[in-house]
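User: structure tokens for this one?
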Amino acid sequence: VDVAVADLPPTRALLDLGNGGTISIPSDYWGKQSALSGLAFAESEIGGVGGMRPARAVTLPSLTFGGQRFR
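Assistant:
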């Protein structure tokens, strides 16, 4: 799905409806956005049947999805 994070240009993201409320945004997008790469994060892991992999968990300042802005 397309989402806009912190009022930045939209990007493609994975919304896993079977997950506990997280959204996965590609790391190459994070690295290009100084407003996002500077957010405090916690080390985490994501995965499923194919195994686990490292991830970063952050609290987003805002997220626009389907024309609705969430803060």
